[in-house]
Amino acid sequence: MNPGGRGCSELRSHHCAPAWVTERDSVSNKSRKISWAWWQAPVIPTTQDAETGEIFRPEDYSRAEWDEIFGVHIPKPWETFRAELDVRMGDDPKGFLDTHSDVALELDYPEYIYENLRPIFVSRMPNHKVTGAAHADTIRSPRHFKDEGIVLTKTALTDLKLDKDGEIDGYYNPQSDLLLYEALKKQLLLYGNDAKKAFAQDFHKPKADGTEGPVVRKVKIQKKQTMGVFVDSGNGIAENGGMVRIDVFRVNGKYYFVPVYTADVVKKVLPNRAATAHKPYGEWKVMEDKDFLFSLYSRDLIHIKSKKDIPIKMVNGGMEGIKETYAYYIGADISAANIQGIAHDSRYKFRGLGIQSLETKELLIELRSLLDSELSKDSEFRSRYYREALNYLNRFWKEIFAYLDDGELPIDNNLAERTIRKLTTQRNNSLHYGSDAGAEMAATYHSVIGTVKLHGSSIWNFIGTFFKNIFNGCRDYVNMVPDKITLAASQC
Questions:
Q1: Contact by Cβ (8 Å): 94, 114
Q2: Dihedral sign, CA of 484, 489, 490, 492?
């Protein structure tokens, strides 16, 4: 990519020449090149050797050669950037400035910013994508799943191992053939619990008379499984694929979460059983829609409060305890009904945190109270952008937090914005529409196109079927949407 400089293939390269350094460009080209120059910082000027007078030009060197000879030059975004960064990286930037008047004078913060100064908080992008397989590849027998919460799988002898009590780990019903079970244990003990060596040769099933029976290659191993995906008309069960999110509910003041997996997303009815520690899926508590609070995706920000210390593991390996923190949610453990998280700057991680420690509505109430307080203050000392942000939050409060009332709604508008990206590009290229009606028509068509694509359908097939139904007199608009268009066609 060459956005206007000479000999530059990188958008923000260190060795790009200034975009306006040319005398042959027309006025229009020069304007375009100057606009690109904003994206080419930092620009390294020509360098002259103080002793020899030799002139070094960036375009005569590769980026690696220039950096090796003259060092990496990264200009400051603004003059006081380094000082501000040092202050904001501390745990109490306002307290530091209160005791270092020289630094406070250098930074010269407006009063409304100075009074609300906080340390830097690292923003992480939430992951709301639904990807991956619906279930694991291994299919097991579900015969004992419902009553005992276990599944059976035939396992090769080379994968067996002894547990700490000297028994074969997970061996199903050893009493059914005690002679075989004891022989397998003996063989594992003989080779120091190394199954690959112990069963490198064919292993014959022992008979009661001491003779050898048929060769044994696999035995049944049981495994605890809280939940799974039934396949093959219910004749098999597989472990769930990736967990997409958890839906958080509150019942009688206590918090619960319902895990939602990839396979659940494509179903018409979402799961409604909340994870219960050390209980099989059939004993999990059933949630009602009226008690739903919100959904948590990977890297969503949460505010955690706990009466007891939350054990956290520091990046240096040490352990500490905290009672309150803001952190990013990174996963859940359904067997223990708890969640895991990580600090915004990765200083620590925590796991095993009971879901009851989450603070939700209380945080929203606190935020609303702070907003009302800010709106009631004199706006004379606020910047225009701060006022606009407060007014926007106040005006669209209900819409912004609509996801708390409906778990199907995303927490942001990223999906819609990605979908209309082509429309935005087309709009920028065409500069304008011929009329308001034309703009509305374009928005309507692009909304339909984006929706159909999200359903994985062909836009041409949909539009063709839609207008065919219209011409045939069909007016079942409720069912003439992308996921129901074939149903509408059959009823018209």
A1: yes
A2: positive
Q: Is 4 left (phi over 0), alpha (psi -120 to 50) or beta?
A: left
CB 135 within 8 A of CB 155: no
- 169-200 CB burial, b ≥16 within 10 A, e <16: ebbbeeeeeeebbebbbebbeeeeeebeebbe
Q: Determine the Cα–Cα distance for residues 457 and 235; give it in Å rounded to an integer.
A: 31
What residues does 325 pair with on adjacent strands? 304
Round to the nearest angstrom and report the end-to-end CA distance of the chain.
Answer: 53
Q: Which among 185, 197, 356, 334 is positioned nearest to 274, based on CA atoms? A: 334
Query: Hey, which bits of 270-416 come out as E strands?
Result: 273-274, 285-286, 292-297, 301-314, 319-333, 338-342, 348-354
- Cα–Cα dist 343/199, whole Å: 47
Helix, strand, coil tally for the chain in percent (to 5): 40, 25, 40
pTM: 0.49
Q: In this predicted model, what pLDDT tens digit does every residue of 28-81 receive, in sequence order?
A: 343 333 333 333 334 445 566 656 667 777 777 777 777 777 777 666 778 888
Q: Are 122 and 345 in contact (CB under 8 A)?
A: yes
Q: Is 53 left (phi over 0), alpha (psi -120 to 50) or beta?
A: left
